UniProtKB/TrEMBL annotation:
GO annotation, biological process: gamma-aminobutyrate shunt; gamma-aminobutyric acid biosynthetic process
Positions of post-translational N6-(pyridoxal phosphate)lysine modification: K382
Gene: LOC109048922
Subcellular location: Cytoplasm, Cytosol; Cytoplasmic vesicle; Golgi apparatus membrane; Presynaptic cell membrane
Origin species: Cyprinus carpio
Family note: Belongs to the group II decarboxylase family.
Cofactor(s) listed: pyridoxal 5'-phosphate
Bilayer topology annotation: Peripheral membrane protein; Lipid-anchor
GO cellular component terms attached to this protein's record: cytoplasmic vesicle; cytosol; Golgi membrane; presynaptic membrane
Function noted in UniProt: Catalyzes the production of GABA.
Molecular function in Gene Ontology: glutamate decarboxylase activity; pyridoxal phosphate binding
Name recorded for this polypeptide: Glutamate decarboxylase 2
């Protein structure tokens, strides 16, 4: 170890060359291909891109492997059967898991390094051929398993990278990551208090706190963590239907009249998908017009409700959006609440993307009226940067979820247990097996406090305003809609010189439609950054920049602008 450190201190480049040569020489001293594996592992960790973190990890792995050889030549080829619960498997288990942790830590450090790629892109068929991903009948050695771990992360997208802006969920929180590791270690199910006592209580405490933040009196109500915003939205639709027609639970859709739901034309596709899954049908979801900023128009909502009633349909559900996926628009919740109250319709707020702004005193006004909703979807795995997945459905009426979904399976939900059965939350969920999603959010909240989340959210919105101000009057850029964005969504076209001055508008739009896909493809091939694009209505492809990554800075925004221009200059 001291020799290696001396080489390192002397000269980084000489270390790479010397270590490689030394490793290849050492490989010849071992039989059975062991030395080749050690050498291959060492080089795999250092190449193709040298970095101190990668070098650290490679050296540690090499030294541990050599120690294993020196200490006991009979334990070189290890299999999963050598790990716990195998007799005397504790030391081997600890060594194996430490190897895995070293791999992950090196990846984490590299993910925050701006000099590294966001993505090492390969086409699917190329990536399939690059490694052996096939499953075999015989077990692989633990060395092979570690190589698979390295390969998996090598080709993974670095979603923690400060220049990764592709999705609404970005970044990597260290406390959240630790909580996720602990959750997997506990490896339990959320359906009863008896098998998940602490996690069930933490879910109870956290959901109550979230309901208080929404504005429901003393946090009364109900809720559950589900596998994403789409499922949370479907839960809301399910509850709305049951609230109006409880007989549907036993007798099905044939027992109820034709139901119709209403949502903005800019809303998430999960509203229609939920209607399809529940047997209501996508044609029973009526899309309400949005204004030029993407906000639902209340007058059109009321007109369509009246129109549906005149046709004999029964309006039962309105889904307003707090932070639309593309424009980041916030529907006028107060006006929508008035209409829902007037017509006695369940009001749901899909705040999967924008709900976290409730944590910010500066920005929560954008959700004024949410306290009047019957239910709300809120995804902490987006703006709060909780590791995926973490989505909550909050419900104002307590007990409704239980009566809607319970099946009272006697092998799980026995009625003569020794504790308060209200903590057996599994029967109010659609799932039986339910992953522990709460601990990541709870532990991060303990670490940051509400003010920590507030500062994180405010910073992201400040960065989006900075981007907007930088490009709104910059040559070659055109905003998709006028005015400062309400959320971190900044939607714009980049017009390369070859498109910028075209006078034929039809030809200009035709060519502009191809610009964003080409620039995005080049971003991925170079691995420098990632940002999404899409069309919207009659608008051709444009970039949709979203900022939820706590690691992003003003310099990263500057880099994005320069990179778009560099990659699109010749188009």
């Amino acid at each position: 170890m001291e020799v290696l450190r001396w080489i390192w201190c002397s000269n980084h480049t000489r270390l790479i060359v010397s270590a490689r040569a030394w490793c290849q020489a050492a490989a010849q001293k071992f039989s059975g291909g062991i030395g080749s594996k050690l050498c291959g592992t060492f080089i795999f960790n250092m190449w193709p891109k040298f970095s101190i973190s990668r070098l650290n990890e490679a050296i540690l792995h090499l030294i541990r492997s050599l120690n294993a050889i020196i200490c006991n030549s009979n334990t070189i080829v290890l299999l999963f059967t050598d790990l716990l619960p195998a007799l005397n498997g504790d030391a081997k288990t600890m060594n194996f898991l430490q190897e895995v942790v070293d791999i992950m830590l090196a990846y984490i450090v590299e993910s925050f390094d701006r000099s590294t790629k966001v993505i090492d892109f390969h086409y699917p068929n190329e990536l399939l051929q690059r490694n052996n991903w096939e499953l075999s009948d015989e077990p692989e050695t633990l060395d092979d398993i570690l190589i698979s771990c390295r390969a998996t992360l090598k080709y993974a997208i670095k979603t923690a990278h400060p220049r990764y802006f592709n999705q609404l969920s970005t970044g990597l929180d260290m406390v959240g990551l630790a909580a996720d590791w602990l959750t997997s270690t506990a490896n339990t199910n959320m359906f009863t208090y008896e098998v998940a006592p602490v996690f069930v209580l933490l879910e109870y405490v956290t959901l109550k706190k979230m309901r208080e933040i929404i504005g429901w009196q003393e946090g009364h109500g109900d809720g559950i963590f589900s596998p994403g915003g789409a499922i949370s939205n479907m839960y809301a639709m399910l509850l709305a239907r049951y609230k109006m027609f409880p007989e549907v639970k036993e007798k099905g859709m044939s027992s109820v009249p034709r139901l119709v739901a209403f949502t903005s034309e800019h809303s998430h596709f999960s509203i229609k998908k939920g209607a399809a899954a529940l047997g209501i049908g996508t044609e029973s979801v009526i899309c309400i017009k949005a204004d030029e900023r993407g906000k639902m128009i209340p007058s059109d909502l009321e007109r369509r409700i009246v129109e549906a009633k005149q046709k004999g349909y029964v309006p039962f559900f309105v889904s307003a959006t707090a932070g639309t996926t593309v424009y980041g628009a916030f529907d006028p919740l107060m006006a929508i609440a008035d209409i829902c109250k007037k017509h006695d319709i369940w009001m749901h707020v899909d705040g999967a993307w924008g709900g976290s702004l409730l944590m910010s005193r500066k920005h929560r006004w954008k959700l004024n009226g949410v306290e009047r909703a019957n239910s709300m979807t809120w995804n902490p795995h987006k703006m709060m940067a909780v590791p995926l997945q973490c989505s909550a459905l909050l419900v104002r009426e307590e007990g409704l979820m239980q009566s809607c979904n319970q099946m009272q399976a006697c092998y799980l939900f026995q009625q003569d247990k020794q504790y308060d059965l209200s903590y057996d939350t599994g029967d109010k969920a659609l799932q039986c097996g339910r992953h522990v999603d709460i601990f990541k959010l709870w532990l991060m909240w303990r670490a940051k406090g509400t003010i920590g989340f507030e500062a994180q959210i405010d910073k992201c919105l400040e960065l989006s305003e900075y981007l907007y101000n930088k490009i709104k009057d910059r040559e070659g850029y055109e905003m998709v809609f006028d005015g400062k964005p309400q959320h971190t969504n900044v939607c714009f076209w980049y017009l390369p010189p070859g498109v910028r001055y075209l006078e034929d508008k039809v030809e200009k739009m035709k060519r502009l439609h191809k610009v964003a896909p080409v620039i995005k493809a080049r971003m991925m091939e170079y691995g420098t950054t990632m940002v999404s694009y899409q069309p919207q209505g009659d608008k051709v492809n444009f970039f949709r920049m979203v900022i939820s990554n706590p690691a992003a800075t003003f310099e990263d925004i500057d880099f994005l602008i320069e990179e778009i221009e560099r990659l699109g200059q010749d188009l």
